């Protein structure tokens, strides 16, 4: 594989009620991806637990075991070891982080030596039926994070961030070659998709992020039925001009694609979206 290429693998997992079992499975699937040549591996959002925010409850009242963790903490230590053991760059999905009495939905980035090189706390927090995340998480306070790695500059956003073009653009302005979205999205019993196909909209909005920003976009979703929710999988990698390189099924699997970093740089240069920006005209975007 050339220095301008990287193999990405998305760990599309089913979750069970026991956090330790989910963590063990994640480690095993990271190793499986690495054995298949993965250089960058991504886990889903809140991968160590079932999706507890489908219940509008405070953390202490949820029916699920919800392990708060710190950074560093138990989960980060396990993920650090997995990255080092397999010599992969690891986007560690996200965890329910407790930080001095504050609670965040947090993604960690590890290099091939297992060092924590990035911490991102989810910026946009949904609060809709079956996605009651504001009952659990505060809006992130890290700002956006793009980290230079041996395989390009990596940005991380989390699930609901995917609907906000401003977040993708900020990652691009920070120099991201690729942005990963650890995700927990699906359908809920009793809620009609009245607007149209949610899964298509989910992928299409991120296709726009990829094209407008000349960068690879990868979304890693969970799968399986969790009480009244069905997570549809469909994890995907989209190249810097909007081509879906791979799309996962509705089953548990590793979803992989090889990307060309030079392609995104060529798109930026050829289409010149960044050269021709007019920031002086965009004040309205930052107003309440």
Q: In brief, what are we looking at here?
A:
The chain has 288 residues and is an alpha+beta fold.
What would you note in describing this structure?
- There is one protein chain.
- This protein is of the alpha+beta class and 288 residues long.
- Helices cover 23% and strands 27% of the residues.
- Strands 1, 2, 3, 4, 5, 6 and 16 form a seven-stranded mixed β-sheet that branches. A six-stranded mixed β-sheet has the order 7-8-9-11-14-15, covered by helices on one side. A three-stranded antiparallel β-sheet has the order 10-13-12, with no helix packed on it.
- Strand 2, helix 2 and strand 3 form a beta-alpha-beta unit.
- Helix 1 packs parallel to helix 2.
- The N and C termini lie far apart (47 Å).
- The model has no long low-confidence stretch (mean pLDDT 95).
**What is the number of E strands?**
16
Question: How would the global form be characterised?
Answer: globular
Share of residues in helices: 10-25%
- How is the biggest beta sheet arranged? 7 strands, mixed
Mean pLDDT level: 95
Rg from alpha-carbon coordinates: 18 Å
Give the termini separation.
Answer: 47 Å
Percent range for β-strand residues: 25-35%
Low-confidence stretches: none
Q: Note the total helix count.
A: 5
Class derived from helix and strand content: alpha+beta
Order of helices and strands: EHEHEEEEEEHEEHEEEEEEH
């Amino acid at each position: 594989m050339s220095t301008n290429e990287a193999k990405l693998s998305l760990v599309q997992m089913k979750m069970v009620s026991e956090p330790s079992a989910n963590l063990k499975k994640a480690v095993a699937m990271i190793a499986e991806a690495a054995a298949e040549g993965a250089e960058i591996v991504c886990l889903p959002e809140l991968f160590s637990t079932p999706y507890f925010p489908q219940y509008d409850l405070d953390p202490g009242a949820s029916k699920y075991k919800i392990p708060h963790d710190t950074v560093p903490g138990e989960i980060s230590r396990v993920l650090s070891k997995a990255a080092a053991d397999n010599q992969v760059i690891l986007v560690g999905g996200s965890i329910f982080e407790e930080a001095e009495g504050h609670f965040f939905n947090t993604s960690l980035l590890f290099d091939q030596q297992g060092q924590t090189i990035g911490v991102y706390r989810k910026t946009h927090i949904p609060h809709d039926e079956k996605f009651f995340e504001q009952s659990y998480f505060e809006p992130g306070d890290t700002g956006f994070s793009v980290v230079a790695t041996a395989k390009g500059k990596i940005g991380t956003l989390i699930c609901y961030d995917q609907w906000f073009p401003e977040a993708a653009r900020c990652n691009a302005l920070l120099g991201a070659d690729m942005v990963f979205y650890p995700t927990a999205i699906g359908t809920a019993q009793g809620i009609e998709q009245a607007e149209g196909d949610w899964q298509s909209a989910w992928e299409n909005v991120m296709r726009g992020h990829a094209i407008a920003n000349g960068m690879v976009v990868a979304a890693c979703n969970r799968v399986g039925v969790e009480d009244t929710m069905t997570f549809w999988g469909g994890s995907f990698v989209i190249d810097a001009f909007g081509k879906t390189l791979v799309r996962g099924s509705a089953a548990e699997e590793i979803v992989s694609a090889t990307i060309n970093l030079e392609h995104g740089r060529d798109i930026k240069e050829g289409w010149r979206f960044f050269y021709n920006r007019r920031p002086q005209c965009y004040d309205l975007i930052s107003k309440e």
